[in-house]
Amino acid sequence: MIINRSKDSSSNEISFVSKDMGFLLTQSEVSYNFKDKLVEDIAKQVFAENRLSVGTIAKTNVKYTKMFIGVNGYDTIMSAYTEASKKTKKKYMIEANLDKFNVIEKGTVTLSVMFEEGFNIINTTFSESMENVKNKVIVVDQYGSKISEKIDNEIFKEVNVIMQKVIQQQENQDVDIDSEFNGIEKSCSLKGYGDVSCITGRGVKVKDSYTKLVGLFYIDTDKHTWQNGEYQIELELNFQNLMDEKSAGQDEPKEESNLGGEDYAGGKEFTAEFTAYCPRKEEGGDTDCRKKKLDPSKKTCAAPMVGKYEQTYYTKEFLNKHPLLNYGDEIQVITGVSGRDGVYKVNDVGPAITIEKNGTYHIDILFGNVEEASKFGRRKRKNYYWWLFW
């Protein structure tokens, strides 16, 4: 499909830029909450609701649970198939074939065409980089204590130096250590005389003595150019059959239905909006409101305090219903996030940490780093509560 068109009066030329239909899937955002749904049915639903024609959809028999809000259709489908790939050990891709979309196994088709120097190759390139090598992975807990470590000896032999990655594992979270290893990255490309069968996901044979590109390669991207009566093709090639893995979406926040259960001590109940912060200059530094050093290993939070950032609508009647807290008060928090509920000590405050006119408390929970805080984000639901211990 043509997506851009331009005219130039000086040369009497009209230029067109076209892309296959896959472009449409990257431009449309979705909002879904999939629960135990077959991956192939997720793909069918995304295609159907975007009114896109479907051909073949690869079956996985893998069920998937994830929430997608504001994620494009391509990332939604590929995130589901990435999860399925972990179980089926197959590689998948989305293919736009003329007027239909297919989800197929990647790299199962090898083209009969061969690119060979002196025949249909214009030029080839090849490069290697160790910039992103990771051959050792260390897993630590939320307080920085080591849980485990692993070295990939094969990657180590390639560079003869340790290049490690540290992963902070959250409570009740699994870590796939093997997926964090990364060897020397190799990339190659080819420019030659065109063949319309050369499309992404296909295997193609190449023979070029200068760059030593000899053998079977997999097409990662393809670009076709027709100009002045000549048809040329540009291919990004890969030594391995790699899947475009995606991990979009988020887990559904867990709601606590048994608010009076044995995990909670009871008390007075209030609605709250939870946000997250960490010790850094942009968020007030690494000390609390009394200049004591913040300690992310302890459960502490910022909450509306007596005498701090009080609002004009804080009348006596309002505060009787919605009391302010004092430094050192303990509150029991239900955020709906596994591992983040429990008793927190109030030791900080800020200009945004107030009680809204509708009685909603702003509670800012302390995390250890920016990544954790960003992942937690902002959480406000009508059944999120905190308990004040009187």
TrEMBL record:
It comes from the Bacteria. Residues 2-238 form the YqbQ/XkdQ domain. This is Phage cell wall hydrolase. GO terms for molecular function: hydrolase activity. Keywords: Hydrolase. Residues 246-257 have a biased composition (Basic and acidic residues). The keyword Transcription regulation does not apply. Residues 246-266 are annotated as: Disordered. InterPro entries: YqbQ/XkdQ (IPR056937).
